[in-house]
Every structure is written in C-alpha cells, then in structure tokens.
C-alpha cells in the first residue's frame, strides 16, 4: 500500500548541507548531529557519536563508491532521500542515490531484477507483503545469515533487532529475517471526536438507536452511526454542506486492490486465529498445509476467498459506499479519496491509514482546533460478524529494506550500511517526527512523543497499546504477491461496478488465484514450499470444519456495541 504525504519543514534543508569528502569523516558526523538531530534521539550525544563512529569506520573500504537504492514516495522516504542520504555521504564517503518512485514501479523493478538477474538497485525498500515471495524464491538475501556472514563487518553492533516492532512481519517460516523494517503505518478507524461528544448528537442517537454514541466495536454499530450522520444538519456546529457517515473509494483501479488485500476480509472475520496472520487460512483466504505450502483459495479446496465471510465483507463495503458516502466516492481512487475526511464533512471512516496523520493535523484545516489539537481521533477498527478474538483485525504497512542475491557483495555491503543508518537509533526519533511511521519501540516511548501525543489524534496511544499486534501486513501464505495482488482490483472492481454480484466476483477471484498457484506448482520454481493444491471437495465439507472457511451465519447483523473513546484510551494506559 502506498500514499504520498506532503513534505515537512525538515525537507526544506538543503541537500548540499553537508560537503561530501572523499573519505569517511567524523567531523561531518558531529556537524550532522548538531544541525539535524540534537536531542531528538533515544541515545545520548556520546552514544550518538559512538554509533556514527561505527559507520565512519565500517565505510572505509567503500569510500568513493556510488550506490543506488529505491523506495516508494512517502514523507518518510522523502526525508531519507533529501536529508539523510546527503548526510550519510558526508559521513561515510559513500554516495547514495535514493530514488523515489511509485509503489507499483518499485515492485516492477524488483520483479525485473528477480527475473533477469541484472542488478538494477543495490537495495530496495519494498513492503513486507512480499515476505512469502522472498522466502520461497530465495532471491532476497536472508539477513539473519547475511549479518553473521558476508555482512558481519558492516552490521551495526547497536542495531538492536529486538527494538523493531515489525520484525515478525519480515521473518519467514524458517525463522530467518528477510527484510529490515524502515517505516510502518496501520489502517485504523477515524472519527469526528467533536461530533461524537456533542450533547445534541448523543441525545438524538440514544433516542433513535437505544444505545450510546461512541467508537463502534462491531460493524453493526458502524452502520448505525453511518446512517445517523448521513444527511444530518450540523450547521449549528459550523459545518457547511452535506454530511456523510462513511468514506471509501470504489473505482476499478489498482489502488482498489490495496483496499481489499490490505486485510478487509480479516476485519470481517474471514481468516483464522493467529499472529501476525491467521493459520492455516490467512486474511487473503489462502490456506496452507503444515509445510507452509499453499493448498487452496476457494472454499472447495479449504480456502476462504469466496466464503460467506468474504462475501459479507464485500457486500457491506459496497452497501456503505452507496448509502452513506459522498456520491463521487464510488469513482475515486485511493489517492483521490484520502484527503476527503480532512475537508470536514465526514463523520467516520473505517479504513483510514495512519500515514495520513501528518497531512491531517495541518493548521487551518476544518478538522483542526485553534489550539493545534485535532477535532478527530483514531481508534481500533470495528470487526465484522465472523470475527473472533485472536484474529487479526486490520493491516499494517511495513516498508522494509531488501537486499537481492543478484547484487554484488560489496555493493550490498555499502547499501546495508545506508539501510542501517536511516533506521538507526541516532536518527529514528527525528525521522519518526517527520513521517510518523514508527518502527522502533524505543522511539514510540520517547518523551517527545508523549509531549506531541495530544496533537496526533490517538496515534501514539495506539502504538503504545497492546491492541497494535492485531494489525499486520500480508503474511507468508501468499507465495507470489506481485502476481496475485493484481487479481484483486480487477475482480473486486466487477462487484463495485455491479457487473457481478459479490459472490460471483469472489468466485472468479479465488479461481484466478488458484490458476496462479497451479502454474507455480507445475513450474516447481518455489521448491518444497511452493503450492500443492488440494483436490476439490464439496464446499460443505470445509464449511463444517472448525475455523476458516466459516459457514454462513443465520444473522449477520450483530447486536451493536460501542465504547467511549476516553474509556478505551484509559484501558490501554
């Protein structure tokens, strides 16, 4: 998943702020600490200098080398490219060209390098959604062995892997780490805290629905709230124009796929219990056997992509889009829909990425108070009728450093130094204030974020809470993310447009996924962990088994439940 964020003041620093010497330079390191980092670090100044001394010393064999790395275009990576890359060059004497391109283009370059063996980039920041791809194809260096072998001399002794909150996302079933997280953000529930706490709104909601207006715990409550606010006159609160109870997007476009592969079915409850992803059936509806081999996507093979929970999930998304969203939303892409809630006429959004935070707290927005605090909050997403405790409830993007086997060793070593520099404890607090995409526990707990928390709408509280483990990226059940992900937007788009019913669209999707799995099985390119499809059975056989796929519920309309946001936050603390 990707999105573009508006730049921050940090990006106004001149790229030529540090003169690049033809040697590793500790004086440049001290100048960088003085001008850019200061106290914005979990390390003391002495510890910062010690960490940067490692980079100065380790870089000596690579002084004068030019390396090329690539990432998608978001605020965090803009900061790395515009500020941290020049600083790294000044400190180490290694010139880094950090390209910023679209997420789809990153995956395309990565695929080309995998297929051709040509070294296009020396390192990639690509989503950990590809962990199943990297583990099976073995064309990405597994970093566990790398750090103990060819990368040992260039591995920061202060890297502290246990401090990375998303390491489970980048670890294969073999227990090896294949990627190093660089940035993370989750999709959460977003709502107008001010509207929800308005006495008149609360009284009217109670009178209409018989329970308190609050953060919805389940989809039934979300639906009631969407109905309540859609068309409501809030002019007494200074709101001009039509009000809507839901925001989403539905154009048949590649970004529509993100909306669904980014764990929408898990929120409905389609997958099995498990962290970070359901086993044996994950949030894509793909089942694996005890050897981690994908065995099916359709219910007839034990998958859940076209099961009752998945149909319910897509049906509800279409219904809410049509009934409670701005009329233009159905024709919008992800990037077009993203800014709409901050314009001030949307009451809630179930599927809202926390990387929008920086762009949603800018002064003078209709959703901001004069004191700089937001009128909105974020909270855990409500779950659907098929969801059970212990099942993931949403998506977390984890853009992560990946070193390909086709990259020459010396170039990979230099790139690994850069990857560790931009994720180091020295720089991570400052980088996180710029992009608000957290990767380290120590950064989340830093006092500067305690001070900033009231201005970030619940972001810090969420990342400090025990709830965050229920949000995770695509897991290892997906054997070839690039090939399979493109199937989603095309098939879901048919349901969105009305060309097919949700059941027909999902039947087509799971069949398309199984066709890819069958091709991979025949080709044998993924070895003993590649697909091994089950024989088809009557769907009732699998629906009668415990776990996913789950049989049709007699009543998918649960008793609606809400919770006070303030009480929710207290329970986390």
At a glance:
With 573 residues, the protein is α+β, with helices and mostly antiparallel strands. Helices cover 40% and strands 10% of the residues. The chain starts with 25 loop residues before the first helix and ends with a helix.
Structural write-up:
This protein has 573 residues and is an alpha+beta fold. It has two domains: 18-178 and 396-470, Periplasmic binding protein-like II (D-Maltodextrin-Binding Protein, domain 2, 3-Layer(aba) Sandwich), CATH 3.40.190; 185-390 and 476-554, D-Maltodextrin-Binding Protein, domain 2, CATH 3.40.190. Helix content is 40%, strand content 10%. It has 23 helices and eleven strands. The strands form three sheets. Strands 1, 2, 3, 4, 8, 9 and 10 form a seven-stranded mixed sheet that branches. Strands 5-11 form a two-stranded antiparallel ribbon. Helix 20 packs antiparallel against helix 21 (502-523). The chain is globular and about 70 Å long.
């Amino acid at each position: 998943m990707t999105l573009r964020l508006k730049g921050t003041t940090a990006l106004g620093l001149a790229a030529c702020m540090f003169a690049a010497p033809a040697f590793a330079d500790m004086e440049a390191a001290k100048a960088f600490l003085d001008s850019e980092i200061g106290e914005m670090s979990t390390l003391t100044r002495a510890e910062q200098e010690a960490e940067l001394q490692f980079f100065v010393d380790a870089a000596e064999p690579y002084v004068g080398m030019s390396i090329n790395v690539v990432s998608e275009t978001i605020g965090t990576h803009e900061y790395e490219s515009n500020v941290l890359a020049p600083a790294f060059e000044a400190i180490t004497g290694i010139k880094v060209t950090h390209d910023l391109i679209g997420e789809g283009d990153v995956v395309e370059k990565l695929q080309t390098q995998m297929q051709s063996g040509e070294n296009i980039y020396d390192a990639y920041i690509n989503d950990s959604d590809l962990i199943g791809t990297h583990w099976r194809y073995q064309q990405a260096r597994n970093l566990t062995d790398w750090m103990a072998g060819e990368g040992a001399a260039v591995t920061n002794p202060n890297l502290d892997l246990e401090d990375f909150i998303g390491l489970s996302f980048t670890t294969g079933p073999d227990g090896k780490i294949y990627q190093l997280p660089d940035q993370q953000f989750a999709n959460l529930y977003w709502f107008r805290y001010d509207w929800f706490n308005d006495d008149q709104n609360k009284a009217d909601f109670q009178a209409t629905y018989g329970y308190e207006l609050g953060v919805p715990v389940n989809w039934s409550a979300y639906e009631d709230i969407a109905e309540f606010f859609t068309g409501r006159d809030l002019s007494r609160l200074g709101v001009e124009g039509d009000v809507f109870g839901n925001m989403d997007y539905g154009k048949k476009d590649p970004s529509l796929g993100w909306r669904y592969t980014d764990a929408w079915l898990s929120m409905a409850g389609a997958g099995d219990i498990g962290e970070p992803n359901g086993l044996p059936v994950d949030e894509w509806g793909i089942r694996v056997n005890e050897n981690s081999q994908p065995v099916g996507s359709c219910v007839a093979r034990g998958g859940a992509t076209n099961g009752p929970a998945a149909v319910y999930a897509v049906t509800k998304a279409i219904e809410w889009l049509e009934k409670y969203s701005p009329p233009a939303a159905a024709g919008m892409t992800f990037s077009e829909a993203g800014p709409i809630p901050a314009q001030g006429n949307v009451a809630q959004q179930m599927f809202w990425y926390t990387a929008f935070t920086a762009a949603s707290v800018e002064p003078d927005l209709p959703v901001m108070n004069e004191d700089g605090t937001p009128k909105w909050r974020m909270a855990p997403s409500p779950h659907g009728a098929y969801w059970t405790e212990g099942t993931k409830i949403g998506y977390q993007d984890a853009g992560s450093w990946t070193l390909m086997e086709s990259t020459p060793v010396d170039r990979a070593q230099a790139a690994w130094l850069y990857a560790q520099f931009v994720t180091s404890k020295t720089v991570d607090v400052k980088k996180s204030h710029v992009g608000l995409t957290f990767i380290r526990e120590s950064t989340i707990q830093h006092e500067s974020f305690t001070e900033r928390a009231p201005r970030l709408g619940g972001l810090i509280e969420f990342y400090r809470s025990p709830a965050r483990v229920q949000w995770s990226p695509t897991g290892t059940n997906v054997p070839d993310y690039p090939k399979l992900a493109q199937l989603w937007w095309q098939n879901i788009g048919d349901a969105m447009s009305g060309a097919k019913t949700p059941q027909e669209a999902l039947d087509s999707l799971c069949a398309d996924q199984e066709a890819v799995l069958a091709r991979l099985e025949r080709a044998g390119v993924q070895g003993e962990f590649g697909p091994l499809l089950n024989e088809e059975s009557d769907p009732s056989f699998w629906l009668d088994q415990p776990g996913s796929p789950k049989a049709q519920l007699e009543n998918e309309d649960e008793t609606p439940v809400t919770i006070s946001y303030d009480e929710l936050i207290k329970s986390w603390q």
